[in-house]
Structures are given as structure tokens and as C-alpha cells.
Amino acid sequence: MSEKITIFWFRRDLRFEDNIGLYAALEDAHPVLPLFIFDEEILDTLPTNDPRVTFIYNRVQQMRTQLTEEYSSTLAIYHGKPKEIFKQLIHEFKVHQVITNRDYEPYAIHRDKEIGSYLKSQNVAFNTYKDQVIFEENEIVKSDGNPYLVYTPYKNKWQAQFKDKENLLESSSEKYLKNLVRDHNLSHISLSDMGFTASNIEVPDYTLDPHLIQNYEETRDYPYIEEGTSKLGPHLRFGTISIRTVMKKAIAEENHVFWSELIWREFFMQILYHFPHTVTDTFKPNYDRIVWRNNEKEFDKWKKGETGYELVDAGMRELNATGFMHNRVRMLVASFLCKHLLIDWRWGEAYFAEKLLDYEMSSNIGNWQWAAGSGVDAAPYFRIFNPNTQADKFDKERKYINKWIPNIDESTYPDKMVNHKEARERCLKVYKEALR
Predict the structure, then answer these.
(1) 165-202, pLDDT tens digit by residue?
(2) Predicted TM-score (pTM) of this structure
(3) Which of 207, 242, 337, 423 could cysteine-pair with 418, CB 3.0–4.6 Å?
């Protein structure tokens, strides 16, 4: 291709609608080459039938097909290390600039710095945009410029600074797709080319039904109410819907609890951005003095849903079968692992990272450290959920439990692996010794 082009790099924004970076690219004077890279630095850590890879692949194929059928264009798909891919693209095309939407995870920040440095050496501009959040990085901070460490004042500042006409202004990126490169011979690969096979676990569609949002606080704590959660997690994670669209729905239905949950997502994102060491270390350093038991056999029982505690086991079996677990149950199983079994929160965080369709590093780390008591605005160490009373309160008729443990009354169901009272006393003793 003799003319200069702009490359738009899709990552966590797999949509044409209301895509801020894509809009900026399409407004450029040069035709746009849309690009997606299956980053082998990430893929090499995943099982070959990972359902998230299947979901991403199918979504990218849908986008590719749409561009071919409606715009006589296509989407370039590569597999490899991003820097090497860009070296190849710079060699093949006359690239004016590369545009993408920002990612705030530590690996992504490092990767983008490396890509930006390389492109600069080639006299190619690298421009990034805010797309996956309403407020990013240092936009919501205390008056002294330091990040908030407690959610409520962060939320209050977030809401005080929020202006719907400004912060929810959608870009019309989908209206300018005629400005794409017309080339049907762009790179394309299959799942098998990357060493992956299609997973039989599917990412469910999300719902933004007004009834769900209006009744969110009344239904969200009960795992047996399947229509009580939106299933938005994976779609926000991979950007198949924009955060602005979701926020507009929350505000239109005037549900502040639903709205607050979306703000929690940004709270944890800014915590990870400002404190990247929390990927491996506790936010509160003294919690790293806890002497974890880390019994591998007990960890294996927890993973399989064989603890003998019905609600814990139902949650783990749901996770293993579907890649999803209800949020109320997530809090319980995390508390059980850290406090009943005294197993390091990092073990549980890593297992959730492997299994969750909606895995979001910042939220996963934030919530696991919340459960262990070691994170920002965390549950106090002496808050230890009783699995029995949690089941009585949130699944009184055992509808959720019976769905995931149909053999609950049979003799094959395991005995309780620990006594709640004894485990609680042991936990308090170990925590007190570490924190004194």
C-alpha cells in the first residue's frame, strides 16, 4: 500500500460503537487499518481451551465479518509479541500513527511504553485515549493529590465531579467505518494456529433490563435469582459494551446501588494503577506476617467444591462449570479459604484468575485482599463469615445449593472439613499474632 495509514489497535474495546480511540483514528485524514493482536505473552499463561480466548476470538471474527460485508474492509488479526508485530507492520505499511485505548494493568503499561518507544524511533506517533472508564488514573484524588484509599470518599468525589453531559458523551465511531483500509488480504489466523481449541463454556449475554436495575439492591444478594445480576462483567472487561452506555442506563433508572457497583470497578482500577505492587504483595505490609497453613490437600478440596459447607461448595462448582460465581458467594468462598483454612489469598486470587470469565485484575486483587483483610478499605480481620448462616440467609430454600449439588442428601457428600467455631478461633489467634 503506497498511501500512509493510521493503525487502530483493538484491545479491551471489542466494539465499533462508542469507541473513543477508534473515533479519533477514523477522524484522521489517513485510512485506518483495524488491528487485533493475540498477545502470546498473555496466551502462553492460559490453558489451551480457555473460554475467554474462545470468546475473544469469536467476537473478533464477528467484527471482521461485519467489516467485510458492510464496508469492503476487514480486521487484521495477528498472534505473537506486540513489538514484533509492529515491526512487521512498519515494514509492510507506511504508518502515520498508531492509536489505541488505554489499559491500566501493570503488564499493559509496560508493554505500551515499549511499543511507544519503538514507534517513536520509527517516527510514528503513538496516541492513547481514555475509553474503558469514566475517570482514570489521577482524575479522582484527594485535595493533596494522593489517591483515595477508602471507597466512600472516593465515590463521593467521583459523583461530585461527574457531569453526565460531559462524561457520558458518546462518540459516533460506528458512523465512520467507511474510512477504513480497503484490503481483504490482511493477516488472519485460527484458534488452532495459536494452539487453542474452542471451549464449551460460553460467555452469557448481558442484560440491562430496566426491571433488573430498578430492583438491583433487592435481588443482588440472592444467588438463586438468576435474573438478579446483569452478567456485565466479561462485557465490560473486553469492551463489547461501553462504560458510558452502562452508566446511562444506571442513571436513567436512578438506581444508586447499581451505579455504586460501577464506581467500585474504577476505585479498584485506580488502586492498582497507583499501587502495582499489590499484584503480589499485600497493601497493608503487616499482613504479610501472617503464617498461612497453605495445606495443598485442603486447597484442592476447596477448588473442587468438597469442603462440606454447602454454599461454599455450590459456588465453587458453579465457577468450575460455568466460569461465573455470584458475588455474594464469591465473598463467602474467599473468606472461607483465607480464614477458615488459613490459605494465602494469592492462591485463591490465582485460581479465580484462571477460571473467571469476568476476570479483572484490579477487582480480583482488590476483592481478595478485602476478604483477607489486607487490602484498602478491607473487611476487618475478625469479620469471618459463617457459611451456615450465610446459606440460611441468602439461600434459605436451598435452590442455588440444590442446583449445583444435586446429591446433597446422599452419603457421598463430604463431611465438613473444619469446624466453624474452631476454625474461627484459630484464625483470630494467627491474625492477632501477626498483627500485634
Answers:
(1) 788 888 899 999 999 998 767 888 999 999 999 999 99
(2) 0.95
(3) 423
Q: How many CA within 13 A on the CB side of residue 175?
A: 6
Structural element, H or E, at residue 282? none
Residue corresponding to grid cell 455504586: 260
Annotated binding site: which residue ranges?
216, 258, 261-268
What CA–CA distances, in Å, run from 194 to 46, 135, 197, 198? 12, 35, 9, 11
Binding residues for FAD: 216, 258, 261-268
Residue from 286, 358, 362 nearest 324 by CA: 358
Q: Which CATH architecture has domain 1-131?
A: 3-Layer(aba) Sandwich (3.40)
Alpha-carbon distance of 404 to 400, in angstroms, equals: 7
Among 183, 176, 33, 172, CA closest to 100: 33
| Superfamily in which the 279-435 domain is placed by CATH | DNA Cyclobutane Dipyrimidine Photolyase, subunit A, domain 3 (1.10.579.10)
CATH class of domain segment(s) 133-168+208-274: mainly alpha
Q: Which residues contact 257 (CB under 8 A, 6 or more apart)?
A: 216, 217, 220
Reference 109, options 269, 255, 289; nearest CA is: 269
- Inter-residue contact 242 to 15 (CB < 8 Å): yes
Please give the mean pLDDT across all residues of the chain. Answer: 94
Distance separating alpha carbons of residues 145 and 421, to the nearest angstrom = 44
Distance CA 29, CA 169 (A): 23
